[in-house]
Known about the structure:
- The chain starts with 9 loop residues before the first helix and ends in a 70-residue tail after the last helix.
- It is about 40% helix and about 0% strand.
- The mean pLDDT is about 75.
- It has a domain at about 10-120.
- With about 190 residues, the chain is mostly helical.
- The chain is elongated and about 125 Å long.
- The chain contains 6 helices and no strands.
Amino acid sequence: xxxxPVTGSNQLLDLLDSYIPDDRINDFCNVRxxxxxxxxxxxxxxxxxxxxxxxxxxxxxxxxxxxxxxxRTWRDFARLRHRHRTxxxxxxxxxxxxxxxxxxxxxxxxxxxxxxxxxxxxxNATALIDATDLPAACSGFKKxxxxxxxxxxxxxxxxxxxxxxxxxxxATKSTAFASGGVNIRRQSC
Length: 189
């Protein structure tokens, strides 16, 4: 059994490059903004750039947009020819909004269809469910709350005290002041 290359490696990007049907993606998702200048990137280039966020150690579009000019193999995978003409975060977000969840799902289905047809003939084929419609189990990431205990004392008894602001007076007042002293020495002869 042949193993896949490590995630983020150039070998993995080279291997996956031939599985992406650029012409189908361009026909299916012809992205043109309603207003403003036309984009200089095809839908396939933008979709491949989205894939880079999953296939490389960079997991944010901000960091991907910053590092893309420096990484030649990433640009080759995304079919971006010029070093300084790479999609920025705004363009990637606009593409994702325009394509929508259903559009991105249909692109994935077009890519998976030939793989699923051949996987049925494999000797040790494994079935996987599509978990995109299942509700997320996020309770593992919530803060744990302590078990509630019945109150035996009034609520304000255990409440932490809040420090008050210092009260001061900055006005000058006329206060009567007198000074003087008494001689306490005894007189000697």
